Amino acid sequence: MPTTGVLTSAASEQNLPARALHLLQSVFGYPAFRGSQAEIVQLVACGGDALVLMPTGGGKSLCYQIPSLLRHGCGIVISPLIALMQDQVDALGELGVRAAFLNSSQSFDESMHVERALRQGELDLLYIAPERLLTQRCLEMLDGVPIALFAIDEAHCVSQWGHDFRPEYIRLSVLHERYPDVPRIALTATADGQTRTEIIERLQLGQAQQFISSFDRPNIRYQIVEKENVRRQLLDFITAEHAGEAGIVYCLSRKKVEETAEFLRENGISALAYHAGMDTPIRSKHQSRFLREDGIIMVATIAFGMGIDKPDVRFVAHLDLPRSIEGYYQETGRAGRDGLPADAWMAYGLQDVVQQRRMIEESEADITFKRMQSARLDAMLGLCETLTCRRVRLLAYFDQASEACGNCDTCLNPPVSFDATEATQKLLSTIYRVGQRFGAVHVLEVLRGSDSEKVRQWRHHELSTFGIGSDKSEAEWRAILRQTFALGLVEIDHENYGSLRLPEAARAVLRGERQVAMRLYQKPVRQKRAPVRSGSYTETGLSAAQQTLFEKLRWWRMETARTHNLPAYVIFHDNTLREIARAGPVTLDDLRQVSGVGEKKLESYGAQIIALVGEQGAD
Ligand code: ADP
Ligand code: ZN
């Protein structure tokens, strides 16, 4: 059923804001626009180009969906996320918006059907994969129909430096050349300046107005812990804080993905694996289970996650150091899109630094690229080793100033810094004494005075530095060594079996000309109970009876989602169900007031919900 035909025909720019708001309320069921949404909608609806940078969960989709409904013709959404198009289209269908997609997963008949609908003006929104859009056939088809706008989603895919690079994106500049009068809106959650410049250049968006939102995600708590026994630490974290909840665990390698998922399953946790080396049917099945079932943990490489708009992912964990802050921020951003408290948890250790530095050094890339990767890694290490608020560091990376947040580990449990000058000197001179020809294990043995066979064999027990570090544990020394890597005071010679060597910067420390401050090693504590969340985050604010109703509504939603083969959140978000439980609507008009209930959903589910609420009231 078209909800929009009437509205579209009365195109006048005067009452545009009112019409946009009306669509927001009647179709999407939300009371008001957020942040710069209203401004963006207005601009694009009037035919202007926009570049929208908003964090994940910021509400980018409405910025093109509503203008598509307001303008004459069909909105074309270019997205690389073929696997998610079906869900996106289904979700729009639930709202009464006429949407479809074209991509290679369809049969010929299916795409013919969609093309016909487009030609007959029966579509409000059409999602197209970039490689499909660029075919001669598709462009010719678009020539013949009115187009409301082009939305270029995940626009950072145009950047050759990013890990999401898609060559077809570069060719999307054809849209500007071929359809100069159709407004274009490019959207991304990747914020760094370089990517932004590339998007503007390559997509020819020089005329576009830029909308850069705050990148803060206040409901996400950032936490970076020292790595000891990482799987155990992960298990403790999940059991203590997120039992039965959905989450994503990122690992660097496919092997580690499989092993970690297996380990979690052995410990009674519903975990699934996802990486690019798996057969496509299994991978899609895992993705679909993650989206559709409650409380699944996805253990994955970074191949997983772009475009996953599951709102109730309660945590994102990193078992390996991400390559850059952009990557880290994008991945952690997948937690808590519903605005409820969520965790970004990462375990980090010496080996991570060694491994990442080696990967850069051993890559085939040219020197400029390597230098840039190194700079990105350094920024990431700076975040891990920081003595101040993590969020301040993160936002500063995106050129946004902020105050200590009170919702990250360094704010909640400030790390202690100590003067590590002497310890660093001991370490550096041991590396020097063993001839810069041995790796970390051996150096630490000499330093701590371990009487090992290898030490004797090289007669290193006779060195002046033998045992000068016996006052500290191995873990403490590893933490110090890790920080010297991060500070650039020690290097790893990968050509030489990973032996430790001293760069020029080490000299000043050895000579006593440079002081070194470090984070004091703190033995990881096992987490037992969920820490008390601060202020408004905690309260669900439901009475016992309301809570029971909420549970009932969730049951109803699960059943409904199953019969329609939809993810549960496409029917209603947790937030909406909670709001219904709190408000206890008696009539459809009462229910209409709840945020997240639009006209189509009222029509489809209103009666059932009112009945459920009524039953509860009668109990
Ligand atoms: P993004 O694409 O930026 O990651 P989405 O467009 O998926 O974010 O929006 C994130 C969530 O916020 C969605 O569940 C969406 O329905 C909701 N949302 C967006 N705009 C509003 C609004 N104005 N009021 C209430 N909820 C909104
Ligand atoms: Zn903080």
How would you explain this protein's 3D organization?
- There is one protein chain.
- Helices cover 47% and strands 12% of the residues.
- The model is unreliable at 1-11 and 529-539 (pLDDT under 50).
- Helix 2 packs across helix 4, helix 17 (367-385) packs antiparallel against helix 18 (390-397) and helix 25 (544-564) packs across helix 29 (599-618).
- It folds into 4 domains: 10-212, P-loop containing nucleotide triphosphate hydrolases (Rossmann fold); 220-412, P-loop containing nucleotide triphosphate hydrolases (Rossmann fold), CATH 3.40.50.300; 417-519, Arc Repressor Mutant, subunit A (Orthogonal Bundle); 544-618, HRDC domain (DNA polymerase, domain 1), CATH 1.10.150.
- It has 619 residues and is an alpha/beta fold.
- The chain is built from 29 helices and 17 strands.
- The two termini are 37 Å apart.
- The strands form 4 sheets. A 7-stranded parallel beta sheet has the order 3-4-2-5-6-1-7, sandwiched between helices. Strands 8-13-12-9-11-10 form a 6-stranded parallel beta sheet, with helices on both faces. A two-stranded antiparallel ribbon has the order 14-17.
- The structure holds adenosine-5'-diphosphate and zinc ion.
- Zinc ion (ZN) binds at residues 389-391, 404-405, 408, 410-411.
Topology:
Blueprint: H1 5-9, H2 16-28, H3 37-45, E1 50-53, H4 61-70, E2 74-78, H5 82-94, E3 99-102, H6 108-119, E4 125-128, H7 130-133, H8 136-143, E5 147-152, H9 167-170, H10 174-178, E6 184-188, H11 193-202, E7 209-212, E8 220-226, H12 230-241, E9 247-250, H13 254-266, E10 271-274, H14 280-292, E11 297-300, E12 315-318, H15 325-332, E13 342-348, H16 350-362, H17 367-385, H18 390-397, H19 409-412, E14 417-419, H20 421-433, H21 440-448, H22 453-457, H23 474-486, E15 491-493, E16 499-501, H24 506-510, E17 517-519, H25 544-564, H26 568-571, H27 574-583, H28 588-592, H29 599-618
Parallel strand pairs: 1-6, 1-7, 2-4, 2-5, 3-4, 5-6, 8-13, 9-11, 9-12, 10-11, 12-13
Antiparallel strand pairs: 14-17, 15-16
